[in-house]
Specification:
By secondary structure, the protein is an alpha+beta fold. The chain has 8 helices and 23 strands. The protein has a single domain, classed as 5 Propeller (Tachylectin-2, Chain A), CATH 2.115.10.20. The structure holds (2R,3S,4R,5S)-2-(hydroxymethyl)piperidine-3,4,5-triol. InterPro entries: Glyco_hydro_43, Glyco_hydro_beta-prop_sf.
């Protein structure tokens, strides 16, 4: 349309400054063209308005649906405040003042301070552990974000940076994650805290609360120093999906050296969800550095790799090939310049959503929610999804970092947000923060994308000191 108006004006220099509508009305046969053009404009404006109104209606309905949820779901969406008192600074001798810098006096400082008096608030002791095998009555099925979580043998679950596969064949959930144990150390003075690679832990469950240890399904390599899985390297964020065509379980993970310069993905395969997985190879996907990553299997069976790239300044997304063992040569840059990592992708009513974290090593930071009509983008950033706790809780993703979002079967719009509360002083003692995530209501950030289209739903992650799944309630 713009091109047309320019052409008309340039053929009639005397009319160059006049209003284009008048121009075309005075131009005989061009008059009908302009009527068509302006009718089209009018139609598009009406269509836009109609879509806005109907979308708002849908959202209003959505909100209503949300409000009319079963009371138990409403309970999960209740805003729970958290009041943590920061202990007053201890009196220090002049010698101590000289020796050590002043203690932190804000909540983040307390969280990062191994000797904080309120450390138990963030890392409750083993006495407080969730123990499904010994949990009588009242505490049954309750998640306590941040508490040690014991498996059916009474050992702390080791599945960090993990994800969950629901295996249709065995009707069982499998939780895969980094098995972190042993001493935490720094390979170099300036290197990140690390533990030696042990492998990928796998746990199975029917109820998402009682987890049986299925062992290390992909083990580290003890001897061969050139092997990707040598214990001196890095294996993070393993995720497993099932390929319906090949009947194989395929694991993708972040493979790196101790300095995080290899920046690759690794692929492993198994005939069974409980492994053992055969390690195939590592590569830089699409020729780019790749650090935090995840994979996502869409409803149509196409799976995607999403990874932080270009030194974590942007994410890349691209489909895997049919057997899920490699990427294709199709990929898109998304969230360019936003410096996000720890992607956790999910889908609701045809829209794709993603939670990411900022890039601050093992220290917690603010989560952001993103949405897209098409998985390949464009992706839009919607803002911080965290609700409740207190301001610092919300600015630190409840002192945790996203790893996976698990759809809750039978309850559309209801998900479990899975995150890691890293303990950089003892990585094996890092905790799990599982919280209810819902999609519904209007996003609270104005969006730049194409004249206000589309209006995404809000993604909300609700803080709860303790909560349980609706399915574990009687009467639901
Ligand atoms: C943040 C990432 O999300 C983690 O998976 C891990 O790579 C740490 N950085 C290492 O500092």
């Amino acid at each position: 349309m713009v091109t047309r108006i320019k052409r008309v004006n340039s053929s009639k220099p005397m009319l160059r400054n006049s209003f284009p509508v008048l121009t075309r009305f005075s131009l005989g046969s061009r008059c009908s063209t302009s009527i068509v053009v302006w009718s089209l404009v009018g139609f598009l404006v009406m269509l836009h308005l109609y879509t806005l109104i109907s979308h708002t209606d849908v959202q209003r309905q959505d909100t209503d649906i949300h409000k009319s949820h079963h009371p138990i779901l409403r309970e999960l969406e209740e805003v729970e405040e958290e009041n943590i008192l920061i202990p007053p600074p201890r009196k220090r001798s002049p010698r101590a003042v000289k020796r050590k810098p002043k203690r932190a006096t804000n909540l983040i400082g307390e969280f990062l301070d191994e000797n904080s008096h309120i450390r138990h608030v963030f890392f409750p002791t083993i006495k407080m552990a969730i123990d499904p095998m010994n949990e009588g009555g009242n505490d049954s099925f309750y998640y306590y974000p941040g508490r040690i979580w014991l498996d059916t043998e009474g050992n702390p679950i080791q599945a960090h940076g993990g994800g969950i596969l629901y295996d249709e064949r065995s009707k069982t959930y499998y939780w895969y994650g980094e098995y972190k144990n042993g001493p935490t150390y720094h390979a170099h003075k300036k290197g990140a805290a690390r533990v030696d690679v042990i492998g990928v832990g796998c746990y199975s469950s029917k109820d998402l609360w009682t987890w049986k240890n299925e062992g290390i399904v992909l083990a580290a390599e003890e001897k061969n120093e050139t092997h990707d899985l040598h214990k001196s390297n890095v294996l993070e964020r393993p995720k497993v999906i099932y390929n319906d065509k090949t009947g194989k379980y395929v694991m993708w993970m972040h493979i790196d050296d101790a300095n995080y310069t290899k920046a690759s993905v690794g692929v492993a395969i198994s005939d069974y969800p409980t492994g053992p997985f055969d390690y195939l190879y590592s590569k830089r996907p699409h020729g780019f550095d790749s650090r935090d990553m995840t994979i996502f299997k869409d409803d149509d069976g196409v799976a995607y790799l999403i990874y932080s790239s270009e030194d974590n300044s942007e994410l890349h997304i691209g489909p895997l090939n049919q057997d899920y063992l490699d990427v294709t040569d199709v990929a898109k840059r998304i969230l360019v310049g936003q410096h996000r990592e720890a992607p956790a992708l999910f889908k609701h009513e045809g829209t794709y959503y993603m939670i990411t974290s900022g890039c601050t090593g093992w220290a917690p930071n603010e989560a952001l929610a993103h949405a897209a009509e098409s998985i390949m983008g464009p992706w839009e950033t919607m803002g911080n999804p965290c609700i409740g706790g207190n301001k610092i809780f919300r600015l630190t993703t409840f002192f945790a970092q996203s790893t996976y979002v698990l759809p809750f079967p039978g309850l559309p719009g209801f998900f479990i947000f899975m995150a890691d509360r890293w303990n950089p002083a003892d990585l094996g003692d890092s905790r799990y923060v599982w919280l209810p995530l819902t999609v519904g209501g209007a996003a609270d950030q104005p969006l730049e994308y194409s004249f206000g289209f589309p209006l995404w739903s809000r993604v909300s992650i609700y803080w709860h000191k303790r909560w349980k799944l609706p399915a574990q309630r009687s009467g639901f």
